[in-house]
Input
Amino acid sequence: MGSDGKLPTSAAAAVKGPKGWAQRFLNVGFVAGFLLVLLTYAVFSQQSQRFGAVVASPDGTYNFRLLNKLLEKQEWRPKAVVTEEPPKRDDTAAKPFDNGKVVCTTAGPYSETCDVFGDVRTNGMAHTVTLVPATSFTERREWTIKPYIRRTMSGIPEVTITQLDSTSASSPAPACTVTHHVPAIVFALGGLTGNYWHDFSDALVPLFVASRRYGGEVQLLVSNIQPWWLGKYEAIVRRLSKYDAVDLDRDEKIRCFPRVTVGLRMHKEFDIVPEFSPDGQRLTMTDFTAFLRETYSLPRAAPINLKQTPKKKPRLMLLHRGHYRKIVNVPEIVKAAEKAGFEVAISDPRFGVQVEELARSVNSFDVLMGVHGAGLTNAVFLPKGAVVIQVVPYGKMEPLAKLDFGDPIVDMELRYLEYSITAQESTLLEMLGPDHPVIKDPESVHRSGWDKVAEYYLGKQDVKLDLERFAPTLELALDHLRQQ
Output
């Protein structure tokens, strides 16, 4: 993945026409591959260690203004924002509640979460959340979960939720040093964040689902905090919470809340299941994309109307990867798309563009096209009713493509088109020969395990689209836009 630290001077510099198709610096933030995910995490974890100790305020909150200063020479330099007033604080014990309750969900396919209601007290450095009864419970109970979206992820500190059996001296409750009158959400970063797709699938989408009901009146307590991540997505985080994020791992305060949610819940990869939304909200991916358009003040809520402007051409953004899974006949595809009736611009994914600039650029297009990869995450910025064309690499990769992008794109109310690469369109054929199992029997490669699938079909393959075979896909995209 590119990370040269330079920023385009304008959105126009990020996307150029086909004559200058090797333009620079439009961030689609995709991952370079499954091995580079770990490398990315390691690099950003080092950034976190370098910045983390100095951007945490004495009260344990995360200081966005100081973070901005530290990131001035980094790739993601957020705009200055007005910080809301912090939660009301005092040195008294929390106001008595009823006995409260703990509701934990641990049976989902991805995540573990606990909702704690009542007199709830957090001890960040100890990674504990304690429910203090007003009278007494019949028994003391404990739950231990990882607040990261994928419970199998290693390297994520666990949080222990305790339901005390009484408030007697034999079972003392920690005394409040800060009292908040808003609920809190405890979640972890790290893991796979740093990969652009995982930033949304593992953090931003589930955080939106968990926090949207509060209208900003919620305190975020973040374990394994990543300063660069908060800076990059500051505009989104600021709309979800009016308060500075607390660095849970360094927080020495005993914070008292009326309600605490521990962990975020993933419904599906990069998607939302309305029935699983908390408190009966029935949120959808169209709610999420509308939220992003509002957050970044994106001007287009609908694609081009060819009935009203028949002489105007719809715009197609072609994602051109600079490494494996790249399209090797880009100029020919550009000519074919122009001949079909599109205005084409090529995006060369880079790592350093601010999200706001990226969002505005993508929103100006009617069609987003690219090979399976994190760049297609930018579909979230398209106007509703636009088209996404996913080029699926050879090797029986259609189920993965549908899970990662196909289903979410449909749930965004975008038109999803899929073009599957044949063996003759894959560079693997020339590399390995027709009798190699990777070419001859992809199912056997899948049976051998994910490592081989990722190595060959995601890590060593480029594609050369058959223009005649691809032409009907372009026509389908154009037909859809004609009907808008």
Notes: The two ends are 36 Å apart (CA to CA).
